[in-house]
Predict the structure of Adenylosuccinate lyase.
Amino acid sequence: MPSLPPQPLSPLDGRYRAAVAPLADYLSEAGLNRARVEVEVEWLITLTESSLFGTRPLSPEDKDRLRVLYLSFGQAEIDWLAEKEAVTRHDVKAVEYLVRDRLTSLGQDGIAELTHFACTSEDINSTAYALTVKRAVHDVWLPKLREVIAALWHLADEHRDAAMLARTHGQPATPTTMGKELAVFAGRLERVARGIQNSEYLAKFSGATGTWSAHLAADPQVNWPTIAREFIEGLGLTFNPLTTQIESHDWQVELYDRARHAGGILHNLATDVWTYISLGYFAQIPVAGATGSSTMPHKINPIRFENAEANLEIAGGLFTTLASTLVTSRLQRDLTDSTTQRNIGVAFGHSLLALDNLLRGLGEISLRRDVLLADLDANWEVLAEAIQTVVRAEITAGRSQITDPYALLKDLTRGRRVGAPELAEFVRGLDIGDEAKERLLALTPAGYVGVAADLVPPAR
């Protein structure tokens, strides 16, 4: 069979490209290389600011010209690096040569030897990864998660008083409201989002085995750990002074565990909304021109939630692998993290795709309150909990001689459907006070929701 024209192997770079494209600015190979150039340039500027080895601080204009190296990083630089790496067989060395080449074109040969000065590749990599992952999370992924959370809070507020039959273990249970149930998901996600927002992004800048040995050999009078700390913190990152050749990646493990946790909650949301749709609680709003089934014209399939579910499972698997792999490095350095970290974008890509589908899906459903009420009206036996609880209170108050109220209600309702007339007749025959009896007779499944509506915070 003849070969196809060059095609993307990953669906993230093909079918789903539009939904995940913003992540590529940070978590692609080009995004990583741009950040590496940024680190090299800023380190070069830092060294000259300290007037090391007879250099003088650069003028603001010269700094701006140097920063153009990463601010205008584009296809020419991407192609240049690809050609150079084919020769060097080393990605970070290719970046160093690119910076040197651009320094020559800017007439800055005098400081070229300070490019990558006293650095190991992992000084550049740990800083570049911290920058790209932080920016991807804060600029792209977290805002999309917050959009989903906001959509949930909006729906929770809208449906705060929409009484609904609960289903614990899949069986009819004490009623709740749809708003309260959606608020549960919003609250869970908001808590995890706060943890992600406050995540640390660590980098090291201490040389081949984390000892600043080469730095001190070049100039033993300089406080290199302080210069390194100020450099890393100046980039908006957290400095890790105690490392091997690599920064230990524990911040990444923590972040990916949190992202996986958020994905687990979102997966729970997707399957629950899917179930509510299958029960008829939510109607799906038809999208003009869309096809639900290739053979059944009436169908509107809950594809947004199914797509989200699948992508969250893929993302969760990748986040788990990232966390479990990156936590370990043999002795002072091995290379397992290199390939592993190149899949960070894949994990966040599938997660972002899921968020996009959930956001769309939540905007394409409409609550069927009539279905919720009909379901409640068909399950009066859920009031058994209220009745036996009231009887217990009456016994305690000395207004009833009933000996086992739970067993009494169990005999009446377990495995049986009990309608409003049968339940009313049962209540009238109970040995309890008149006020309690009237309170129970006035109760309906739709009214037995406690303070569910009040648990939903005010509209945001």
